[in-house]
Amino acid sequence: MRKGMMLLLAGLVLMVIPSLNANAAEPALSEKLGTDYTGMVRDVDGERYFLDSGVMARDKEAYDPVTNAWYWFDDDGTMAVDKDAFIPTKADRSEGKWVRYDANGAMVKGEDWRYGGWYWFDPTTGEMIKGFVLVPVREGGYKWVYYDDINGQMHHGESCINGGWYRFNDITGEMVHGEYCNSVGSWYYYDEITGIMQKGRVTHHGKEYYYDPYSGIMQKGAVYHDGATYFYDGVTGVLTRMSGGRHTHNYAGTVTREPNCFETGIKTYSCWCGNSYVEELGTRHDYTPGVVTEYPTATSDGTQVEICNNCGDERTSTFSRGDKTDRYYGIDLGNGEVDIVYGHYEIEMANEIFNRLNVYRSQNGLPTLNQASEILQMAGDIRANECSYLFDHTRPNGEGVFDTFSWFGACAENIAYTWPSGSAEQVMEGWKNSPGHNRNMLWDYPTSVAISVFASNDGSGRYEYNYVQLFGIE
After folding, report:
1. Spatial CB neighbours of 152, under 8 Å, sequence gap ≥ 6
2. pLDDT, tens only, 29-82
3. Which of 108, 141, 285, 387 could be cross-linked to 466 through a Cys-Cys bond (beta carbons 3.0 to 4.6 Å apart)?
4. Hey, which bits of 130-173 come out as E strands?
5. In sequence order, what are the beta bridge partners of 394?
6. What φ, ψ does residue 471 adopt, rounded to 5°?
7. Which is it for the CA torsion 35, 38, 42, 48, positive or negative?
8. Is 64 in contact with 74 (CB distance < 8 Å)?
9. How far apart are CA 232 and CA 241, in angstroms?
10. For the purposes of burial, counting CB atoms within 10 Å of the CB of 8, is it exposed (0-12), middle (13-18) or buried (19 or more)?
């Protein structure tokens, strides 16, 4: 099994590009650095500034490849340090994002503690996230939390949000779902999906309960509501009987016979009073993940054929390029032979590589590249899943990459893979540090680039990430 990170040099070396000038020590602002200098500088007081092709960055973001971090520079050119800042995305500053910079001025990403609370910043853009967010936990898995709509700080304890009451763990901030008992022994019930506190008559786990319409506290003993007296167990709170009034059935459904390819299923609905009825469920096939018969593009869906594991029934369905469902992709081995790889495309990661590549080119005085045409992008997608089968510039069918794809405008290729995880930042740094790959990224001949990332499932849920930059003339 391949481990770590490997970068294979592009087979086509087309011209020599000077290497990026990245000094380990930041020069003084007073030095004559020339109009082509891009990077950090310091004044006599140690204040840091950023020059972009010799011009001081003011009221703008800047990416420093030496530290591999984003920074913000105010109107006077000084770096934002240890504070929050509003970064406009429109010239009139009507729209933008709040971000945070640490003691070194680097943009904060992920979870951060400040001002007596926790905050969350987008791991890619650094934007302060507000509202309900599903975030990872250190022990593995995820948790739902809520970051205040105004200041972005994580909520703890009981909170009223958009008219609904929620409860968040006093320490971790994780949203409570299901039953909850407070410190004085009062029981509440928070919806298993939404987390909203439930009030009135509620059925869960096949039992009926009653929660105070105002406080949400579980009621026990005799309770009068809906025109009758209901009796709830003094310990569990489960409804046991009623007296007077007209009973309204409250049914809970359970599948009592699972459907299959040839036989319908049955779902039985029962009320606590003993009344019940049944619902017939239609037949159900057990389809395997689809085999792709037509690649998706940015403007059109792909096509897949799925086969039932039990009866062999086939169905055709469509999917978008951004769908992360793992599928089988055919690999042409030549001479009529075909093999398959299993996985999905990581569109967001590919887009981040595209943006980082153009930032890198701009820092080196080169024009940015356009997004590839549909046909060149399809060629890049094909190459990404081919590389998960055979990591080489020769295709699995024995053809050279440019023997086939030069007809689509392709003129250079960078490939890489990482296992068992990967990121746009990681692969870009690898390519920058490899002379052959770096030469392709800083070549002034291409006008566009197709970038594709194929996540190949090894069968255990872990992924090998295969990256392709297919440069083109279009």
Report:
1. 98, 119, 120, 128, 129, 130
2. 777 777 788 888 888 888 888 888 888 888 888 888 888 889 999 888 889 999
3. 387
4. 131-136, 142-147, 157-161, 164-168
5. 400
6. -80, 145
7. positive
8. no
9. 7
10. middle
Q: CB of 237 within 8 A of CB of 220?
A: yes
Tokens representing 72?
A: 């913000």
Q: pLDDT confidence of 246, banded at 50, 70, 90?
A: low
pLDDT tens figures, 114-164: 999 999 999 888 999 999 998 888 778 889 999 999 999 999 999 999 999
Strand segments, DSSP code E, in 248-397 are 252-257, 265-270, 276-281, 291-294, 302-307, 314-319, 327-334, 337-345, 370-371
User: Is the pLDDT score of 14 beyond 60?
Assistant: no
User: Please, which residues have CB within 8 angstroms of residue 287's CB and are 6 or more apart in sequence?
Assistant: 306, 307, 308, 309, 315
Distances (CA, A) of 88 to 60, 85, 382: 9, 10, 38
Strands 302-307, 291-294: pairing kind? antiparallel
Number of other residues whose CB lies within 10 A of the CB of residue 270: 17
Contacts of 46 (CB under 8 A, 6+ apart): none
Distance, C-alpha 32 to centroid of its chain: 44
Tally the C-alpha atoms within 13 A of residue 373's C-alpha that lie toward its C-beta: 11
Is 49 buried (19+), middle (13-18) or exposed (0-12) by CB count in 10 A? buried
